[in-house]
Every structure is written in structure tokens, then in C-alpha cells.
Design brief:
This protein is α+β, with helices and mostly antiparallel strands. It has 4 domains: about 5-90, 3-Layer(aba) Sandwich (Rossmann fold), CATH 3.40.50; about 125-180, Dna Ligase, domain 1, CATH 3.30.1490; about 190-320, D-amino Acid Aminotransferase, Chain A, domain 1 (2-Layer Sandwich), CATH 3.30.470.20; about 330-420, Glycinamide Ribonucleotide Synthetase, Chain A, domain 4 (Alpha-Beta Complex), CATH 3.90.600.10. It is built from 14 helices and 23 strands. The chain has helices at about 10-20, 50-60, 70-75, 80-85, 95-100, 105-115, 125-135, 160-170, 240-260, 295, 305-315, 350-355, 390-405, 420; strands at about 5, 30, 40-45, 65-70, 90, 120-125, 140-145, 155, 185, 190-200, 205, 210-215, 215-220, 220-225, 230-235, 265-275, 280-285, 330-335, 360-365, 365-370, 375, 380-390, 410. The strands form 6 sheets. Strands 12, 15, 18, 19, 22 and 23 form a 6-stranded antiparallel β-sheet that branches. Helix 5 (about 95-100) crosses helix 6 and helix 7 (about 125-135) packs antiparallel against helix 8. The protein is globular. The termini are far apart. The structure holds adenosine monophosphate and glycine (GLY).
Length: about 425
């Protein structure tokens, strides 16, 4: 099969790496791709990931059999619909189904209607009413911009003052643009978080190995929220019993609900969970693979990813065998100084080959080729991943890899997987 992966981050590098291992893969393209994947995929320049027609034209010209859509923006922009309309398989949800991520109010209303456990919430379009609600409910309380905000449109406010300031920033000062013209205000849920990425064909849903992300920028879960500073899998908090409960109360019900709403969901569904004293509750759904969860989940997948993706597109997932490695994987994200706020680009990255030679997988997230050099080109620059028999060994190996890599003002968290290690 000829396969086209859409996107340019660490998640897409990992997808390309895994797809390239399949005997079913003939030619592999990445649009736009990044320098890390250039040894496995042909990177396609000059087409925007939001230009559905140009992508369909490319796919037709290059006899693509499967388009795999990485990021949320092309999904909510209807790329899967456009590709399928041209008679080509696409892995990912339709535009209508991608609303589960694209609109927090849609997904909260869906969960309320179908009794899927999640935090209590209200939706506001007027700042004054939002502030009155905050004064009534008190803190801690959680404020979320309704639309897409690259994982950064959420404020977990521990005080009322902080919550009121968040309304000013999001609704009045439009910190996230139009994504903030509606906000969801939620009850604060206490507990440990876990991510559960799932394969689904719209009827059958198969959770992948569980993982845990570290969303705060600094050690000890301090500092601003980011797209994710590191991950590990599996997450010991997700016991077999909790997995079963999540499947029964959340995963199967949400897939049935989407189908009942006429928005059949296929592709990867990401359930962000809070394991509370009352059991697992949904923090959010995403319409795609997690980043950087994918970087630790796919290295533990022993089955052929192309076969599974094809089964998701064709509605035959129930017949698909999916095997996972018994080991653990850890990803340390190396970020550019300043991230998630302003950061520099264009700094030379050294030590990539050395880290790989020492046994790490190095997934590029924000890099560019500049002459013979690889340079920084994003906030999250690299994901250094190691796989081992257990989390302790994987942590040590990933940090050894990260220590071999350097660029100006690089920083990374030193405590990835602390919750698993402290158990
Ligand atoms: P989201 O983008 O909805 O995943 O939110 C980003 C992060 O904010 C989550 O990963 C949680 O750490 C935190 N968060 C979101 N909603 C809640 C909630 N209702 N209670 C506690 N923490 C939350
Ligand atoms: N790592 C969080 C996300 O992909 O949304």
C-alpha cells in the first residue's frame, strides 16, 4: 500500500516509524513531514495541511491507498471526508465526529446526555455571567476555552482570583482568539490522570496500552500547561479492573453515542481520564493520537499498525488481533528555552546520532534542516524515547539519550514517570 501521513510533529514521526515497519507498506509519504522522518518517508512540501483539495489531488496523483491524519486541525477541517469522497481510505474521524475534540461544549453535552462520567460543567458566552458563576461555585475550578487551543486553553484555578483572571484573559482579552468566545467552566476533579488511546472502527473499540503525560512545563508538575513534556507507558494507575470499568462506562458508551448521534467515530479516540475516588471520569476526548503519548504507546505495539488502521477504516476491527509488549517505554521531551511562551528557533542540534547509537529512539517534533544541520524549529523540539523491561530501566535509558543531545537553551523535565517510580 502507498500511505500518506499528514502532520509534522513527534506524533507523526512515530506514526511514520511504525508504519514503515509494516510489510504492507510500499511507498510512504509525509505531508509536510519533518527531517527526522526523511529516511523513511518522502516529505511533501508546498501543500498546506488545511488545503483538502490539494491533498486529495496529491493522493490521487500518487496512488495513495491510505491517508493517516495526525493533527486535530485537518480533522476538524474535514480532511477525512474529502479523502473518502475521492474513494481513498482515511484513518481518522469525519469532521462531524471530530467535534468530540473540536468543541468542548459538544463533548460535554454528549457525555451528559449519555451518562458518561465527567466533571459537572456550565457553558458561557458572556464574561459577566461566567464570573458570577465562579463567585457562586468558588475554587478550585477549571476554565476551558471552547475551541482548539493547542492544549493550552485550560486554566486549573486553585483560587477564585485566578479563575476570574482567566475569564478576563480568555473572554475579554481573547488570549486564544475565537476559541475563547465560549468557555466551559468545570468542577475540579481530584485524582491521578491517565491517557487511553483507542483504535475504533465505529462499532468496536480497542484500548491501546495506557500511558501518562506530564502537561506542566517544570519538574514537580509546576509551571504552565504545555502540549506535553514527557510520557510513559503503561500507566500503573490503570489497573485491569479500572480498564474494564473504563471500557464499560466510557469507551463503549461513547462509541455507541456517536453512532446514535449520526456521527460515527472511527480512527483513534483519545480518552483523557481522571482516576477519582468515584472511579474513572473523562477530562477530555481528543480526535487523534496523543502527542507525546504516541511516542511511548506505538513502540510497545507488537502488531502491524497498517493492518489495524485498515481494519478501522473497513469496519473489521473486531476480527483484528492486537498484541502489546510486556515492557515499558518512556519519552522525555526536549523543549526550546521559553516554551510554552516565546522561544527561539534555528539553533543547531548536536548529538542526535550518538543518542540513537546508544539505543534511544529520537522522534523529531519541531526541527528543520538547515544545510547539513538539524536546527530547532518549534517549542517541543525532540522526544527521546527508550524501551526496556520496566519503567525504571526505560527512564534511565531515555535520560542517558537526552543527555547526549544538546542545543542552545534546551530544557527538559528530570522527573518523567515519577508517579510510576514512586509507587
Ligand atoms: P484538557 O485540555 O481538557 O485535557 O485539560 C488540560 C489539563 O487540565 C488536564 O490534563 C488536567 O490536568 C487539567 N484538567 C482539566 N479539566 C480538569 C478538571 N475538571 N479537574 C481537574 N483537572 C482538570
Ligand atoms: N498529550 C496531550 C495531547 O495530545 O492532547
Amino acid at each position: 500500500m502507498n500511505i500518506l501521513v499528514i502532520g509534522s510533529g513527534g506524533r507523526e514521526h512515530t506514526l511514520v516509524w511504525k508504519i514503515a515497519q509494516s510489510p504492507k507498506t510500499d511507498r510512504l509519504y509525509a505531508l509536510p513531514g519533518n527531517p527526522g522522518m526523511a529516511d523513511k518517508a518522502m516529505c511533501v512540501d508546498g501543500i498546506e495541511i488545511t488545503d483538502n483539495q490539494a491533498i486529495v489531488d496529491f493522493a490521487q496523483q500518487h496512488h495513495i491507498d491510505l491517508v493517516v491524519v495526525g493533527p486535530e486541525v485537518p480533522l476538524t477541517n474535514g480532511l477525512v471526508d474529502a479523502v473518502e469522497a475521492a474513494g481513498i481510505r482515511a484513518f481518522g474521524p469525519s469532521q462531524a465526529a471530530a467535534q468530540i475534540e473540536g468543541s468542548k461544549s459538544f463533548s460535554k453535552e454528549l457525555m451528559k446526555k449519555y451518562h458518561i462520567p465527567t466533571a459537572k460543567y456550565e457553558v458561557f458566552t458572556e464574561a459577566e455571567k461566567a464570573k458570577a458563576y465562579i463567585r457562586q461555585e468558588g475554587a478550585p475550578i477549571v476554565i476551558k476555552a471552547d475551541g482548539l487551543a493547542a492544549g493550552k486553553g485550560v486554566v486549573v484555578a486553585m483560587t477564585e482570583t485566578e479563575a476570574l483572571a482567566a475569564i478576563t484573559d480568555i473572554m475579554e482579552d481573547k488570549e486564544f482568539g475565537t476559541a475563547g468566545s465560549r468557555v466551559v467552566i468545570e468542577e475540579f476533579m481530584a485524582g491521578e490522570e491517565a491517557s487511553l488511546l483507542c483504535f475504533t472502527d465505529g462499532q468496536t473499540i480497542c484500548p491501546m496500552i495506557s500511558s501518562q503525560d506530564h502537561k506542566r512545563a517544570y519538574d514537580g508538575d509546576k509551571g504552565p500547561n504545555t502540549g506535553g513534556m514527557g510520557t510513559y507507558a503503561p500507566a500503573p494507575v490503570m489497573t485491569e479492573a479500572l480498564l474494564q470499568e473504563t471500557y464499560d462506562k466510557i469507551l463503549l458508551p461513547v462509541i455507541k453515542a456517536m453512532s446514535q448521534e449520526g456521527k460515527t467515530y472511527k480512527g483513534c479516540l483519545y480518552a483523557g481520564l481522571m482516576i477519582t475516588a468515584d472511579g474513572p471520569k473523562v477530562v477530555e476526548f481528543n480526535a487523534r493520537f496523543g502527542d507525546p503519548e504516541t511516542q511511548v504507546v506505538l513502540p510497545l505495539l507488537e502488531s502491524d499498525l497498517v493492518e489495524i488502521m485498515t481494519a478501522c477504516c473497513d469496519g473489521t476491527l473486531a476480527a483484528q488481533q492486537i498484541d502489546w509488549s510486556k515492557g515499558a517505554a518512556v519519552c522525555v521531551v526536549m523543549a526550546a528555552g521559553g516554551y510554552p511562551r516565546a522561544y527561539r528557533k534555528g539553533d543547531k542540534i548536536k548529538g542526535l546520532a550518538e543518542a540513537r547509537a546508544a539505543g534511544s529512539l529520537v522522534f523529531h517534533a519541531g526541527t528543520a534542516q538547515k544545510g547539513a544541520d538539524i536546527v530547532t524549529n518549534g517549542g517541543r523540539v525532540l522526544g527521546v524515547v527508550a524501551k526496556a523491561d520496566n519503567v525504571r530501566a526505560a527512564v534511565d535509558k531515555a535520560y542517558q539519550g537526552a543527555a547526549m543531545i544538546s542545543f542552545k537553551d534546551a530544557f527538559y523535565r528530570k522527573d518523567i514517570a515519577h508517579r510510576a517510580l514512586n509507587r
